[in-house]
Design brief:
The chain is α/β, with parallel strands linked by helices and about 425 residues long. It is about 40% helix and about 15% strand. The strands form four sheets. The chain has a seven-stranded mixed sheet, with helices on both faces. Strands 1-2-3-15 form a four-stranded mixed sheet. α7 links the parallel β9 (about 200-205) and β10. α2 packs antiparallel against α10 (about 305-320), α3 (about 95-105) runs parallel beside α10 and α6 (about 185-195) packs parallel to α7. It starts with a helix and ends with a helix. Bound molecules: pyridoxal-5'-phosphate (PLP). Pyridoxal-5'-phosphate (PLP) binds near residues 118, 207, 240 and 242.
């Protein structure tokens, strides 16, 4: 049995201080068994909890830790930076270094503005798009997450209503109605929407690699068509690359699919484990941001030295070590091992993968849109999650969360993990199917 007494006790205590005992909802383990684990330490591909258990980590702090936990180069650069002070609220050389590293190695960006979270990046990108175009409507896609931005916590209206309704209390109806929600992977729905509303739409925002509601693999043609339609109608295309940026390649999905978005948002990896986000684009677009332009945006701790140091150490190491082909190769071989087993046993399951992101689905067919996911199958994930925890493997605590592989995950880690995942699938889905 997995010893979880200390985590359970700490979680009870946390409930006194924090709503639901947490500072971000999915951490509460509502969709899986048992109390959340209180992690006290991470090293490489492993995390260690307060009860003394160790787990191979496929969550990687939800994606930022592409170099694994406590990478020596990040930690030593942070120590060096820390000794000089944590924040000055002024420009700094470290900011210049990270700005240079990114803009010189990313073909789709001339200029960037650093903020402190992915949500803030998206919020600012939406304002920028509205400011530049002078239009108010935003189009988003069902199954894409863009942080907890008011305008984007919106789902499709019921029945024939075109305009969205909010998915959270506290968002004015008038604001939600400025957002149109379309299904992914559906060129016709896009055409129908544009035929009616194109002249009011400031921007279309999409996760080009949707990875917050399963990994919804998009056809490159769908994304290219989106770009084409945006150009034709004078609508800005925002790629929300908070997960895919610096994950599926240094140039993210823009580079992978060879598509020039008007604005790209970043978070997660760009901060190397510190709170950082950013939005970026051509000089033509970015000159509209204050103080150069009239779209206001600011931040007390934006581009603080600690954040810039962790981001710089991470991105520099990714480039220097030519990490991406190796990450991809490792991930593909891990995924094949599990897929072969699934096929042999004939399970209604499969693994969707892109770069070093993977997601276990409970259907035979590839899933490209949110409504193709059968929510009732999440009971299966819950059982698998529990079995894997007992086998010292930590997955994100919901069947809608993707897994991440870091440069710290070794071949041995992954071979053993694949065996354990196959065993868990056998136990939960039945060996004699
Ligand atoms: C995580 C995420 C966000 C929000 O970033 P936070 O740093 O959690 O605010 C926005 N968009 C996408 C695609 C994300 O994955």
């Amino acid at each position: 049995m997995l010893q979880r007494d200390k985590s359970a006790q700490l979680f009870e205590e946390a409930k006194r201080y924090f709503p639901g005992g947490v500072n971000s909802p999915v951490r509460a383990f509502k969709s899986v068994e048992g109390p959340p684990l209180f992690i006290k330490r991470g090293a490489g591909s492993y995390i260690h909890d307060e009860d003394g258990n160790s787990f191979l980590d496929f969550c990687c702090s939800w994606g930022p830790l592409i170099l694994g936990h406590a990478h020596p180069k990040i930690i030593s650069f942070l120590h060096e930076t820390l000794d000089k002070g944590t924040s000055f609220g002024t420009p700094s050389v470290l900011g210049n270094q990270l700005g240079k590293l990114i803009t010189e190695n990313h073909r789709y960006i001339d200029q960037i503005r650093f903020v402190s979270s992915g949500t803030e990046a998206v919020m600012s990108a939406v304002r920028l798009a509205r400011g530049v175009t002078g239009k108010d409507y935003i189009v988003k896609f069902e199954g894409c997450y863009h942080g907890h931005v008011d305008s984007l916590m919106v789902k499709a209206g019921s029945g024939l209503a075109t305009f969205g309704t909010s998915t959270s209390a506290g968002i004015p109806k008038e604001l939600a109605e400025l957002t149109i929600v379309l299904p992914l992977d559906d060129d016709e729905a896009l055409d129908a929407c544009l035929a009616e509303h194109a002249e009011k739409i400031a921007a279309i925002i999409i996760e080009p690699v949707p990875a917050n509601n399963g990994l919804l693999l998009q056809r490159p043609e769908f994304l290219r068509n989106l770009k084409k339609k945006c150009v034709a109608h004078g609508i800005l295309l925002i790629f929300d690359e908070v997960i895919s940026g610096f994950r599926v390649g240094f140039e993210g999905a823009a580079g992978l699919y060879n598509i020039q978005p008007d604005i790209i948002t970043f978070g997660k990896i760009i901060g190397g484990g510190m709170p950082v986000g950013a939005f970026a684009g051509s000089r033509e677009i970015m000159k509209n941001i204050a103080p150069e332009g009239n779209v206001y945006q600011a931040g007390t701790l934006s581009a603080n030295p600690m954040a810039m140091a962790a981001g710089y150490a991470t991105l520099k190491e990714l480039l220097d070590s030519k990490a991406y082909p190796k990450l991809e190769k490792k991930t593909v071989s891990f995924v094949h091992q599990i897929e072969n087993h699934i096929r042999k046993k004939g399970f209604d399951a499969g693994i969707q993968q892109l770069g070093s992101i993977f997601w276990l689905r409970f259907s035979k067919e590839t899933i490209r849109a949110a409504d193709q996911i059968d929510g009732s199958k999440m009971e299966i994930f819950k059982k698998i999650h529990s079995k894997l925890l007992h086998d010292n493997i930590y997955m994100g605590p919901s069947g809608y969360e993707v897994g991440f592989i870091s440069t710290a995950h070794t071949e041995e880690d992954l071979t053993l993990a694949a065996e354990k995942i196959c065993r868990a699938l056998d136990e939960v889905l039945g060996q004699n199917v």
